[in-house]
Amino acid sequence: MEALKGNQTRINEFLLAAISPTWQSQATLFAIFLLVYAVTLVGNTLIILTVGSDPRLRTPMYFLLGNLSFLDLCYSTVTAPKMLMDFLATKRSISFDACMTQLFFLHFVGAAEMFLLTVMAYDRYVAICKPLHYPAIMNRQLCSWLVAASWTGGFIHSTVQTILTMRLPFCGPNHVDNFFCDVPPVIKLACTDTYVIELLMVSNSGLISTSSFIILVISYATILVRIRSPEGRRKALNVCASHLTVVTLFFGPCIFIYARPFSTFSVDKLVSLLYNIITPMLNPLIYTLRNKDVKSAMARLRSKETASEKKLPL
Fold first, then answer.
1. pLDDT digit string (tens) for 103-116?
2. Does residue 114 form part of some domain?
3. What is the pLDDT of residue 261?
4. Is residue 36 part of a domain?
5. How many structural domains does the chain have?
6. Domain of 33?
7. What is the pLDDT of residue 314?
């Protein structure tokens, strides 16, 4: 432990919670989560390669989709590898610095994805409600600036969260009531009154997640209201359905965790697993299963690979 002011000492490691108490179930869960993480890596990487290699997908919508897949890759990688190691470990510990690093990147990538989903909703609004002006409005330069703004917003948000957390005194206990380091369970271990800090963090994370979700719902509702014909509304709903599914899976747990005071509920850890591990795996499945262009591009990519393999000399 490192010395703090007075007689207090700062802890140099945290102990993370176990998903299951028995070794047999831990081994089973390790296999399941390893499969989920592998599917996440393969699915999102495939979307990135498909969007990057197919000229027909070089549009703003698929440019944003490729960035979303990259964020999902990063988001899952922040927590999944450490969790997989902990399944096989007798002591699930993480150093103080590593915990703060994990916390920083968790909020960095998570907030960037929230902002990017909002940008994707705006892209669909312009494409459906202003189709004639779409090429002029959503040009490649604007898309690049919007993606950069999403990353910048995530960085600023995460920097604030991390600095507020690191400035707290931690002198014990050191048992984090979660499977990874996140703001709500970590600041509960601080050796001081955290009421004001909790309010600041809830107003930060909770405001971002709730306001972004409201903007997304309003934008998709506006799209459906603006379209008069039943056939056009059906097509718009089909286009937006995948986005709405992703938004619900991602924002629902985030609002539940961050848009309330940091009181503890028994389901908090399961909700955390949902949006950290499961949702990044489901995103590529949702987009590919509902998107004919992506499925066709993947088929062309496979045919190119098969053709190149046949040309290789024996």
1. 999 999 999 999 99
2. yes
3. 67
4. yes
5. 1
6. 2-17+24-305
7. 47
